Amino acid sequence: MNNWPLWEVFIRSKNGLEHRHCGSLHATDATMALENARDVYTRRGEGVSIWVVPSSQITASNPEHNGETFEPALDKVYRHPTFYELPDELKHM
Amino acid sequence: MSEKEIKNLEELFQRRIDNDEKIEPKDWMPEKYRQTHIRQISQHAHSEIVGMLPEANWITRAPSLRRKVALLAKIQDEGGHGLYLYSAAETLGISRDEMYEQLHTGKAKYSSIFNYPSLTWADIGAIGWLVDGAAIMNQVALMGTSYGPYSRAMIRICKEESFHQRQGYEILLTMSKGTQEQKDMVQDALNRWWWPSLMMFGPRDAESPNTEQSVKWKLKRKTNDELRQQFVDQTVPQAEILGAKIPDANLKWNEDRKHYDFGEIDWEEFWQVVNGHGKCNKQRLEARRSAWEKGTWVRDAAMVHAEKQAQRNLEKAV
Q1: Mean pLDDT of B284-313
Q2: Interface contact B97-A1, CB threshold 8 A
Q3: Sequence-ordered list of residues with C-beta below 8 angstroms from that of B77, at least 6 positions apart, any chain
Q4: The domain containing residue A12 runs over which residues?
Q5: CA distance B55 to chain A (A)
Q6: What does the pLDDT average to over B204-216?
Q7: Would residue A25 count as lying in a domain?
């Protein structure tokens, strides 16, 4: 028999915070994935909300292309506040 | 890829590990790294799952409701830990079914400690105290391992497992304050579980050919002998509080080393159990196989049900 589909589990630990990926599990459908996620990932009150997403629906960037994907941001120091030279008298800016 | 290119990639890979960078599933990795991790993580998962069996033996006979809910929660945790680890192994390209298959055919090993029987209630205490104690020591070291999903599973597991050891020790502590018969049970459990617990750390470093490579990959942060020594040093004072005697005539504090010296493990017994001839090897595997086979119709039915629901929802939408 074939493996049940794989699901990725995201949990919001408390309101005000984002859902965070915490792991994966197998389930036949979304309802079962939610139920299993509750039992596997929130046995000690770790969450107030759960998302489950079929793993096959996730498109990921390729780490082999990390150079062209992420490096262009590294030399743009002018996107950071510390790039700008301002006098010391100027407080709080 | 040419041999030179691979060598180059391997060097870059090792440099990342040396710099304490984590390796993630889609990153390039040497084939041997992948295979070693699949083996270790899946065997770790199998150990969690098979480890539920000796404890399950005592659920219905727990002496109070307090003990029973704690034991149930602990066993449920072990099941959860198995699931975290199976998921981590799957990120390396092996399927859940393949791993079960390897367990059921005896191709994959699990920790030998679970091939010893749990004969009395005191054994449940000893398992929590010694077996979980040894496992935690090993797992704390593994939190810093280089493979991201394994390291994350370890962090989660260690956080959850600290209660396991405490619940076990509390069982023994209560018994150690009880009748003579209960005290004898504590001693008897310690006698039977002490040496197998020391064996959990694996062969001596000199006999462990993979240690060097595993240390390089941070799959081992401490060697077998280092962890075993740490376990002995930590456990001796705990036995004293229980008023129980560790069954080793050679156990003695060594003032120069600032560690306990201890006797030689019966390595013959170790290899016997590893190779399938322990007291419960057959029983454990049989229990796992039977659970898998008897659950087949449930798994199939759940899949069919899900497909039918999906089809119905589709028809409703049209």
Answers
A1: 95
A2: yes
A3: A43, B160, B161, B164
A4: 6-79
A5: 19
A6: 89
A7: yes
Query: Residue type at A38?
Result: R
Q: Is A41 inside any structural domain? A: yes
Task: List B residues 140-169 in contact with A (Cβ-Cβ < 8 A).
Answer: 152-153, 156, 160
Q: Tell me phi and psi for residue B99, to 5 degrees.
A: -65, -45
B300/A1 Cβ within 8 A: yes
CA B85 to chain centre: 10
Does A4 reach chain B within 8 Å, measured CB to CB? yes
Whether A30 is covered by a domain: the verdict is yes
- The pLDDT tens digits of the residues spanning A59-83 come to 999 999 999 999 888 889 999 999 9
Tell me, yes or no, if A64 comes closer than 8 A to chain B by beta carbon. yes
From B278's Cα to the closest Cα of chain A, the distance in A is 32
| Minimal C-alpha gap between A79 and chain B (Å) | 26
- Rounded CA gap, B81 and B70, in Å? 16
CATH code for the domain in which residue A62 is found: 3.10.20.520
| Domain presence at residue A55 | yes
Q: Indicate the burial class of B273 (C-beta count within 10 angstroms; 0-12, 13-18, 19 or more).
A: buried
pLDDT digits (tens, 9 = 90+) for B232-262: 999 999 999 999 999 999 999 999 999 999 9
ipTM: 0.89
CA nearest to B85, candidates B182, B4, B10, B156: B156
The pLDDT value recorded for residue B68 is: 98
B83 touches chain A (CB under 8 A): yes
Write down the pLDDT at residue A1.
46
Partner-chain contact A23 B87, CB within 8 Å = yes
Q: What is the count of structural domains for chain A? A: 1
Beta bridge partners of A21: A10
pLDDT in tens, B143-166: 999 999 999 999 999 999 989 999
Relative orientation angle of helices A30-41 and B65-90, to the nearest 10 degrees: 120
Distance CA B217, CA B113 (A): 26
Per-residue b or e along B10-19, where b marks 16 or more CB atoms closer than 10 Å to that residue's CB: eeebeeebee
| CB-based contact, B76 to chain A, within 8 Å | yes
- pTM (2 d.p.): 0.93
Question: CB of A40 within 8 Å of any CB in chain B?
Answer: yes
